[in-house]
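Handover notes (outgoing to incoming on-call)

Open items:
1. Glycosyltransferase: sequence verified, structure written out, both below. Nothing else pending on this one.
2. Nothing else urgent.
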Amino acid sequence: MPSSTHALFIAYPAQGHVLPLLELAHRFADHGFAVTFVNTDHIHGQLVAASPELEAAGQQDDGAPPPESGQVRFVSVSDGIPPDVDRNNLGTLTSALMSSLPPAVEHMIQNGNFRCMVVDYAVAWVLGVAKKSGMRTATLWPSCAAVMAAALHLPELIADGILDKDGLPTSKQIPPVGELQMNLAPLAWNAAGTEDAQRQIFRCLSNSLKALGQGTVDLLLCNTVKELEEGVLSEHPRPSILPIGPLPTGLRAGKPVGNFWVEDDTCLSWLDEQPDKSVVYVAFGSMAVLDQNQFHELAHGLELSGRHFLWVVRPGLANAVDFPDGFLESVEKRGKIVTWSPQHSVLAHPAIACFVSHCGWNSVMEGVRNGLPFLTWPYFCDQFINESYVCDVWKTGLRLVKDAAGGVVTREHIAARIEKLLNDSATVSRASELQQVASRSIGKDGTSFNNLTDVINAMKG
Ligand code: UDP
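Glycosyltransferase structure tokens:
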């Protein structure tokens, strides 16, 4: 394979970012590219622990030959933080990356003979180095186009007084974006914890935007579907956002998919034993945290519903994973609990009836792709905007809402909403219609299919 098709991919170190970018990297490999995929050392360690086959897909030393055509090789670089520092502090992580990543990438480019570079939008500022070397470049945005459009128009939002100069929302309301009445308050940088963390994340996205302004990004890709965000995409013609989704994460038999935790496949054989459309799937992605009280209330809600359920209880989902007394015995016959599921295969299983989700965008796209109705329970960042798509725009889900007095989503509410959703034929049938829309977009000559084909051809150059 000539070195002209060697592509360099760089991920942002978070689960919901690594998965779709890695799927895109596999697509490039399917089309004959040799791919070098870069994670931070910390994330690489987590991936290898979860998928030992990834170790074989090995590190590349300076001067080693590039990977073969069709191969994805994993490489890791320092994130610039000492090993014992908390990487859940996104401010510290992002700020350190902005210093550590550019020289590491420059070094790789000098030694790698790459033809093109594809990076997460959150690290678009590394592309300056690529442009100096004449490479073609693209970024992937792993959330919806509505939020991407906001990130591409930060200066205008500041000039209009909707955001202050640090990116914090003022009391001024943003006009509707496409069909969405958007609230900018929960955007990434505002949900990042301390004020310093907010400033760092905002600086990071501002730097990505600056890189765009300097002409260092050729293509802006988004893991969405044109037909699902038509309004936003037509209102934001420049710079042009290319929808290429849904990128189906987790479906690569025998190839690393990029999980941070070991998948528990026993839930698939358990699902095989359940009747069609009988199981409530409950999963909150990689970062959401429930307090102990809420965790118990959810367990009681699932118990009270009387329905069969599959619940992902990731390490760290609750402060201490401590089920209510008697809960496990009570639901033994109709409940399955795993620490991490093969989510894509789960959602595609005929036994699944609905998806109780935190509304991370990957989960939303995966639910849509499989025609599932949602019960929405956002935790932070763009998840509130994604919820709004599901419940207000597409009308394929119902909200789970906190009780005003107790501040929790109560067990009675959870059980009642599950029952309401499963008997709501209009919502269930809209979810099936959306599945058709998403399937058409990635099928031959569909909008996402054609965009991705154009992107791959453009990057081959
Ligand atoms: N996921 C998974 N198994 C699980 C839970 C989640 O494979 O048990 C995957 C899911 O398919 C999705 C990703 O993890 O691709 C989570 O990304 P999302 O954007 O939904 O949420 P985040 O983790 O970023 O909050």
